[in-house]
Design goal:
By secondary structure, the chain is an alpha+beta fold. It is 30% helix and 32% strand. Strand 4 and strand 5 form a beta hairpin. The protein is flat, with a radius of gyration of 22 Å.
Length: 117
C-alpha cells in the first residue's frame, strides 16, 4: 500500500462557469435594485413615464437599465442617478448619522407602464 493518494483528473472549469452565468441572471436584478422609491414627487413622475428606484451604491447606468428591462419587460430610454448624502441626526446627547442612499430615475418608452404599487 502506498501512502500517496492518486491525483484525480481536473474538471473543466470553463463549462461550470458558463452554466452559473445563466442561472444567476435573475438573481443579478436583486443585487442592483433595492426597491421602488414611492413619494409624492415620484408618483407625479409616473405620469411622465419616469419611475424612481433605490439602488445599491455600486450600481451603474448600464446595470440598472438591464435590471429594469429584465424584471419589468419594458424598454428604458434614459436613466438619471442621484446620490443622497447621509444626514446628521441627534438623539439626546448622542450624535449620529442617518445613512445615505443612491436612487435612479428611470425613463421608459411612451405607452409602457410599470406596476409599482
Amino acid at each position: 500500500m502506498s501512502i500517496f493518494k492518486k491525483k484525480e483528473p481536473k474538471k473543466d472549469i470553463k463549462k461550470e462557469v458558463k452554466t452559473e452565468k445563466k442561472q444567476t441572471k435573475f438573481n443579478e436584478v436583486w443585487k442592483i435594485l433595492k426597491n421602488p422609491h414611492i413619494t409624492e414627487k415620484a408618483t407625479d413622475l409616473m405620469g411622465k413615464n419616469q419611475y424612481v428606484f433605490k439602488v445599491f451604491p455600486k450600481a451603474g447606468k448600464p446595470e440598472i437599465k438591464k435590471a429594469v428591462e429584465g424584471l419589468y419587460g419594458v424598454e428604458v430610454t434614459g436613466i438619471g442617478i442621484i446620490n443622497i448624502s447621509r444626514k446628521r441626526k441627534r438623539v439626546g446627547r448622542t450624535m449620529g448619522f442617518k445613512g445615505g442612499y443612491k436612487k435612479a430615475i428611470v425613463r421608459i418608452k411612451e405607452g409602457q407602464k410599470i406596476e409599482v404599487l
